[in-house]
Structures are given as C-alpha cells and as structure tokens.
Amino acid sequence: MIRFENVTKRYRGTTKPALSAVDFEVQRGEFVFLVGASGSGKSSCLQLILRAETPSEGRVVVLGRDLRTLSNRKVPYFRRHIGSVFQDFRLLPNKTVHQNVAFTLQVTGASRGFVQQAVPEVLALVGLDGKEKRLPHELSGGEQQRVAIARALVNRPQVLLADEPTGNLDPGTSIDIMRLLARINAGGTTVVMATHEAGFVDQMQRRVIELRGGEMVRDERHGGYGDRSGLPVLAPEVEKGAAAVAALTAVLEVQREVTNITGPVEPLRGPEGSEQVSAAPVEPTSPSVTTAAAERREPGTNTRSIPVSNPEVDALGLADRLGLAEKKDRDDEVGPTS
Ligand code: ADP
Ligand code: MG
C-alpha cells in the first residue's frame, strides 16, 4: 500500500539528508507510528507519501502508483485517496464545521445531494453531530481536530496520514483523538501517524517505525516508544484510573474527618444496608479503588466506613468525573471508513 525503497531526501541548500536510505512497506489496514525526535524526518516521510515532496534517490510507491511517474496533473486525483491531518488543524476560520468539511467535497465537484448526505455522516462518525453550525473558534482544540479528521475522511480515503495530530492537545483530549484514529483504522483505513509522544505509542502496541537523524533505526510490529528517557509521558488510561483513585481517596478522607468531628454519620437514605455501599468499594468493577482506599487506613484510627449512596454519587456526577462510571464512548458509532 505504501512502499519506501531506499529513499533518500536532501532538501535544497542542506548538507545532511533529511532521510537516508529509508526502506519499509506498509500493508493495507495497518496502523503505523512514525516516531523519532524533532528533526528526525517524520514529516518528510509523510510529505513524500503525499507527493508534496519527491525523493532525491530511491522510490516511493503509494496505492500501486510509483510517485516518480505520477504527473503533476494527476496529483490532485491521487491525493483524494489520502486524507491528512496536522498538529495545527488547518481549518478555514470563517467557515462553519459543516462548510469546512463540505468544502473538500465541493472542490472535487461532488453533487449537492452527496455533500448533504456525506457531511453529516462523517461528522457523526467523529462525534461532532450537533456542532455543524459552529465556527472553529467556537470549538475546543479536540473538537477542531475532529473537524480536521472529518474533513480528511469525507472522501473515504484508503490512507490517513496524521502528522503530530495530538501535538496541540492536552493528554485527556489526545487520548480521545487516539481512540478515534484507532477506530478509523479498525474500519479498514490504513493509518500512518507521526508523533514524538511516547504515552499512547507504548499503550497501543502497534507497528513502530523509528527514525533517528533521517535513518530508520527500528521497525517493530508491536512496538513501544523505546528509550523514553527525557520524553514527556502522557497519562495513559491506567494512570487516569490512578488519578481517579487518588481523587476518591481524598473525598473519603474528608468524609472521615467530618465523621471524626461530628460523630457517626446517619445513613443518607433508606434502611441500613439498602442502597448503600461502604466508602471503599463505590464501584465494584474497580478493585484498585478498594485496595487504594484500604491502604490509606491507618491502624487504630477511626476507619468506620461512611455510607455513600450510589444515586448520590451519580447525581453529583462524581463517578463520571473520577473516571469510575461506565464509559459511554461517543466514538462507538465509528463504522467502516472505506
Ligand atoms: P520531523 O518531522 O521528524 O521533525 P522533518 O521531516 O520535518 O522532521 O525534518 C527532517 C530534517 O529535514 C530536519 O533537519 C529539517 O530541518 C529538514 N527539513 C525539513 N523540511 C525542510 C525543507 N522544506 N527545507 C529544508 N530542510 C528541511
Ligand atoms: Mg514534523
């Protein structure tokens, strides 16, 4: 699907090549991380796949086309098969969400009817239904990136290239975007993602191609980031869980202090034992919560558990905010993309 044959790329006016004898092949349906420090050549690879750049030596073959022999006239048609998203979203600031996505179809001469059908579909796919009339500045960073992903997908490309798509997003939002990309891939689209962020590369255990100074130093089927020293590690989900445990423990601590001052707390509602849980196991599917809360109990102190009713926790949205609630994943609707 994508093949680099001994590709060397020298930019005009530079001495050291940006890529040296890079050689790899990506199969249809793969999810590949291109990793490496800034300046290692990740973006250059993606630019070569898009034929925004051409190799100085070697050959790039994409979707069966040798890009050396692809005429300039045919490049726009070729690119319809390749969606791309970038760190800086690149949305049209004065156009709505709908218009940003529709624009891509309109320039390819798609009919009005097709645009009216395809745009809402792809916006639902990325979890943006209901926001089609907003302007980019009325959206969060994560939502803006979703618009960019919708725009990249609306042509139903076979390949999605993502150049540091989470580079401008906070860790939580980045994880949501990663999930979305993983689901798009699960729908059959080949995804090549350049990143220098270690967290989800390690978490996802997908193929990793690592570049260092333009040379390919690793190609691993189910890789992690490798040497993580000095790299900011994004909080993966397990750590999200840990944060939830810490937050819950803090809540319990406060409750315990209150009890110590005011004496035993009456059950919030209902007869003893009904609709109540002891303070620790608020969420039966989170054994770590029980353990962590239990560990916080010091021997000899008042460790009587405080009744916390489940409905109460639900009403406060606490479980949700602490990451303990059953997740309703809005990306669930992502279906096949090609
Ligand atoms: P990465 O995306 O991993 O940060 P790049 O592919 O952007 O790496 O850059 C690789 C090397 O090529 C860097 O040394 C960079 O300065 C150089 N480079 C990238 N684009 C150009 C360009 N258009 N002209 C000259 N040098 C470039
Ligand atoms: Mg780059």
From TrEMBL:
Which family does the record claim for this protein? Belongs to the ABC transporter superfamily.
Is Cell inner membrane one of the keywords?
no
Alphabetized, the UniProt keywords read: ATP-binding, Cell cycle, Cell division, Cell membrane, Membrane, Nucleotide-binding
Q: By what name is this protein known?
A: Cell division ATP-binding protein FtsE
GO CC terms: plasma membrane
Please report the organism this UniProt entry assigns to the protein: Microbacterium testaceum
- Region entry Disordered, spans: 263-338
Q: Where is the ABC transporter domain?
A: 2-238
Give the chief site where it resides: membrane
Q: Which residue ranges have biased composition labelled Basic and acidic residues?
A: 323-338
**Mind telling me which SMART domains this protein's record contains?**
AAA
